[in-house]
């Protein structure tokens, strides 16, 4: 029998992206002994199980408040800070809306998007493919960060001073450009180098 894999995340709350004990208890009770659960670097759990269990398991997990996302070459759920200054100051509502908007798009290689509610950047947005940093009541976007290799690089400032309502459309345009112009298995940082920052800004502006 074939097996399939999907990702789960608890979404956002004040205090961070946290799995609740009851959610983990349900997960452990329904996936079965043969399932495999993997912790990823982007705050998701990958669950691999028999395909005939898939829909029933997903439904029960959703009932606990967990979010279900595809695994593999897709945009990942938003990697956000712990909102230590509270929802209003750190932009929790904006982060929630952004997370809902960006997760699950098929792309040439996995795309990680980070969000920080202040310049402390505790979610390390500048090491993500696309990083958002809230600066007072405006937002800056960085692109091309890479934290996994021996030649780690910091993202480059792409746009600054965006209003909240401008943020999601710009991020979605970046994702669309990557979908349309990226090569198979090409990292987002390499895509930017090939396309050039100037052409990327022209395409999004």
From TrEMBL:
- Cited Pfam families: NIR_SIR
Keywords, A to Z, come to: Iron, Iron-sulfur, Metal-binding
Q: Which InterPro entries match?
A: NO2/SO3_Rdtase_4Fe4S_dom, NO2/SO3_Rdtase_4Fe4S_prot, NO2/SO3_Rdtase_4Fe4S_sf
Q: Which domain of life is it from?
A: Bacteria
Annotated Nitrite/sulphite reductase 4Fe-4S domain ranges read 95-204
Protein name as catalogued = Nitrite reductase
Say which species the protein is native to. Paenibacillus residui
């Amino acid at each position: 029998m074939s097996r399939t894999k999907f990702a789960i995340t608890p979404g956002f709350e004040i205090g961070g992206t946290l799995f609740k004990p009851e959610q983990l208890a349900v997960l452990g009770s329904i996936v079965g002994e043969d399932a495999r659960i993997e912790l990823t670097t982007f705050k998701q759990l990958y669950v691999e199980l028999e395909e005939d269990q898939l829909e029933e398991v997903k439904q029960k997990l959703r009932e606990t408040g967990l979010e279900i996302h595809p695994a593999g070459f897709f945009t990942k759920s938003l990697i956000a800070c712990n909102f230590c200054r509270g929802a209003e100051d750190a932009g929790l509502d904006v982060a929630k809306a952004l997370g809902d908007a960006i997760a699950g798009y098929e792309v040439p290689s996995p795309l990680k998007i980070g969000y920080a509610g202040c310049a402390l950047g505790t979610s390390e947005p500048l090491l993500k493919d696309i990083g958002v940093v809230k600066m007072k009541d405006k937002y800056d976007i960085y692109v091309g960060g890479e934290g996994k290799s021996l030649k780690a690089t910091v993202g480059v400032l792409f746009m600054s001073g965006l209003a909240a309502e401008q943020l999601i459309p710009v991020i979605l345009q970046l994702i669309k450009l990557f979908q349309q112009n990226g090569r198979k298995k090409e990292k987002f940082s390499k895509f930017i180098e090939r396309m050039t920052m100037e052409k990327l800004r022209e395409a999004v502006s």
